[in-house]
Write a structure and sequence with these properties.
Elements (H helix, E strand, L loop, with lengths): L6 H10 L1 H8 L3 H27 L9 H4 L3 H19 L3 H5 L2 H22 L5 H4 L6 H23 L5
The protein binds protoporphyrin IX containing FE.
Protoporphyrin IX containing FE binds next to α3, α5 and α9.
Length: about 160
């Protein structure tokens, strides 16, 4: 219970929203939203993996880190589109998705990937001037490796949703 409203009630309210009804009733919406989701997450994951490989020191090593980091603006924009399209596919069948193990794991790993980014930014990123043009320190390489692993797993889990209970 959350202030007198149960989780099931929140899910039912989401499913009953007029926009959810429209997405359920008109068969064009799901494929359009799924295409938006795939294109935007391709951008997010592609750009994140580029940064991860730079953080790990295995790609674009000669590129100053602050130059490589210019891709972060694109990551936020594409992540916004991926979240919006994902939410619009989720809302009409919220109870079914929440009962799906692959979906729950995917959301959990997205949360962990966000946490990993936060730790990176509050930690070793603050001392970027020290390693901007040299080999990244262990903490940066670790954050890159953790992020890369999480995002690959998130994509696999996303694809597993329709094949999982
Ligand atoms: C940026 C992070 C995300 C990534 C990398 C991601 C990844 C994926 C992938 C790979 C698919 C399968 C696409 C296909 O097979 O055509 C998918 C589908 C889906 N995603 Fe995401 N997703 C992300 C964020 C979200 C969020 C935030 C939500 C919900 C709030 C969400 C909800 C969904 C739904 C409902 C589907 C359709 C599942 C089905 O086939 O029934 N996604 N996602």
């Amino acid at each position: 219970m959350l202030q007198g409203i149960s989780l099931q009630e929140i899910l039912t309210r989401l499913e009953d929203l007029p926009i959810s009804q429209e997405i359920t009733d008109n068969p064009i919406w799901f494929p359009v939203l799924e295409a938006m989701h795939v294109v935007s997450l391709g951008l997010v994951v592609g750009a994140v993996l580029f940064l991860d490989l730079r953080l790990m020191g295995v790609f674009a090593r000669k590129e100053p880190m602050h130059e490589a980091a210019k891709v972060i603006g694109l990551i936020w924009l594409a992540a916004g589109l991926a979240f919006m399209s994902g939410f619009l596919m989720f809302a009409p069948a919220a109870s079914r998705y929440l009962a799906n193990t692959a979906f729950d794991l995917k959301m959990g790993l997205i949360f962990l990937a966000g946490l990993n980014m936060l730790v990176l930014h509050l930690g070793v990123w603050r001392r970027l001037a020290d390693w901007n043009e040299s080999a990244p320190p262990f903490a940066a390489r670790l954050a890159g490796a953790v992020s890369l692993t999480l995002w690959v797993l998130i994509v696999i889990l996303g694809r597993m949703v329709p094949f999982t209970q």
